UniProtKB/TrEMBL annotation:
Keyword Transferase: yes
Stored Pfam families: GGACT
Organism in which the protein naturally occurs: Massariosphaeria phaeospora
Record-linked InterPro entries: AIG2-like, AIG2-like_dom, GGCT-like, GGCT-like_sf
Gene3D superfamilies: Gamma-glutamyl cyclotransferase-like
Family listed: Belongs to the gamma-glutamylcyclotransferase family.
Gene Ontology terms, MF aspect: transferase activity
The name this protein goes by in its record: Putative gamma-glutamylcyclotransferase
Domain Gamma-glutamylcyclotransferase AIG2-like as annotated: residue spans: 7-145
Domain of life where this protein originates: Eukaryota
Record keywords, A-Z: Transferase
Amino acid sequence: MSSHTAFFYGTLMAPQILHRVIWGTPFPPTPAHAALLRIRPAILHAHRRHKVRYADYPAILPSTTTSSVRGTLVEGLTDGDMWRLGIFEGEQYKRKKVRVRVLEQEDVTGSSSQPGDGHVEGEEVEAEVYVWCSSPDELESEEWDFAEFVRDKMKWWVGKDAAEADEGFQGRPSINGEAS
């Protein structure tokens, strides 16, 4: 059984949604399941996140600008997890390998790579990511906002009780650098 590392930049940053996709429940079925995954904040450079028209989820495309995408690095995914994630993502996305940087908490005396974000870039890690492969006309120029998704849409994805539970993303900087 292979172990996979993936970078998520949209709805799958919410642990409840990730767990529902890979385990069928918004929470790890057992503590042993929870221990299988290592989840850390990360950043993907040279890509840009977009809203998908008429959808709750985003897409990313490679970018020649200095754009970057904040998201979640998940280590310890199985072949079965990746199969289920591929079904979840659908034909609009193609999985590819990228290099991301882990974001580490900045100490009080440190200097941040971006003012006020509370994180500095750490080790570089190879990860798999789902990149948009459908028509770019289906994307908006506006960036998708994780905090807005959590506030306004997540309850429809996981149910009210799971949407309100603190599964590790509360208080963590959002993709916009603000605490969620």
